Amino acid sequence: MAITAGGSLNSVPASQKQTLSTNYIDFNQDMGWAQQYLPDLMEKEAEVFGPRTISGFLSQVGAEEAMQADQVIWSEQGRLHLSYKGQVTSATGGADAGSGVSNIAQITIQDDIDGNVGSGFTAANHGIRVNDTIIVSNSNGVFKCLVSVVANAVIDVLPYSQSALAATSTAKDTTILVYGSEFGKGDSYRAAAGTSNTTDQRGANEPTFKTFANKPIIMKDYYEVSGSDTARVGWIEVASEAGQSGYLWYLKAEADTRARFTDYIEMAMLEGELASTTSEVQGSTILPGSTTDAANDAGTEGLFSAIETRGNITSGVTGVNAATDLAEFDAILAEFDKQGAIEENMMFVNRTTSLAMDDMLAAMNSYGAGGTSYGVFNNSEDMALNLGFSGFRRGSYDFYKSDFRYLNDLATRGGINAAAGAGSAIRGVIIPAGTSTVYDQMLGKNLKRPFLHVRFRASQTDNRKMKTWTTGSVGAATSALDAMQIHMLTERCLVVQGANNFMLMK
């Protein structure tokens, strides 16, 4: 069955500075504006494209908070436990006189468990210390060892169960995990290789932090209607996005402008991208930019960009086969297990992925079952359903799924996805619910913040969350312009904390 769109649809608003008949709702192409002079003609506008808003996405999953600086900076603590990738470079290379053993296996630390060499971690500044007990795992087996020497990136280890470790040939083929320590009676910390245990020289492990920043962007729009046209008396019944109805005429176009601007705000928070130092945007004079001051750089980091850069990406749950989709979904859970294991998560997916999830859950005969807590909705299943969410539980995770119209609508991401290749289309996002603890550099203390939230510029004198003002000579005259201009402005950015707990479905 083929599905064909209706023809002659004036679906895309035009950028018009003049007041023309095409800017207004017309009842009859032949009689035109005259129809609008009849107050008793109450035609009802048809919203042929359905509700034209994506409002609610950020309000449902995030929060909003004021900021005063040019950028927001936050620090996220790294993993609590010490785990690294390395290589057993020698089975007998070490020789520590203090240990009483002449041939000791040596392991060279090469990376942390997340592969962050060059991003705040170097092999030489690992946290393994003398007298730590470690697990060493590679293709030769799993071994428990005692650390006897630490010399920058190289550590000497004494196996508990055998005389030596076998050397390996491939870089980063060995995983090392610190699981504790062991000291002798009356023993103090070892000072250095080959020295006696007489001085307390065991260094303290400091928590590691990664610092991230984002900057707000300024967005503007306006609507204009001439003074003469504001005096016309014509009525039409229109339906608002909230389902209310009333009789307006020129303000309908203003309402559409405002609704479109609201959508732009949210789309910018989703699609925003920071300009690279070598980009044409950064090098142009259209926007003030500086390669030395991040606060003046063009662009802002949106949700999709943040997840692609710092989060997880999956190509699973495609709807090809319900059994296959279940295995792919369980692989997503396994990845979450490796990260923060946040129990409650929001899913915003396109229609195809949503139906694939429904088929997958139906095959298990467990849709909406399994003890879903609905904690993010104040433990109210009715509230979740009223907001368009369906809850289900898999393993130890609760998910609240909602169709995301932005990914379906042909005039928004739906059209972009249709034109993009298989690996570029965005099918959905999985966002952790709740809060995480971060260090706020502006306030100088640890704070609990939602994983996803918006920061907007505001002070005691000016709140730029959503400003609206009117200029012109209509109403309270501010200029000689024979028109009413309604201006809209916002300055805001998105903060994606703990992006390692987010998942982008492509």
Descriptive key words:
single chain, 506 residues, alpha+beta, Thrombin, subunit H, six-stranded mixed sheet, 9 helices
Report on this model:
With 506 residues, the chain is α+β, with helices and mostly antiparallel strands. The protein has 3 domains: 33-73 and 214-302 and 437-496, no CATH class; 81-185, Thrombin, subunit H, CATH 2.40.10; 316-422, no CATH class. 17% of the residues lie in helices and 31% in strands. The chain is built from 9 helices and 23 strands. A 6-stranded antiparallel barrel has the order 3-4-7-6-5-8. A 6-stranded mixed beta sheet has the order 13-23-17-14-16-15, with helices on both faces. Strands 1, 10, 20, 21 and 22 form a 5-stranded mixed beta sheet that branches. A hairpin with a 2-residue loop joins strand 6 and strand 7. The two termini are 27 Å apart. Mean pLDDT is 75; it is low at 16-50, 192-198, 367-371 and 383-388.
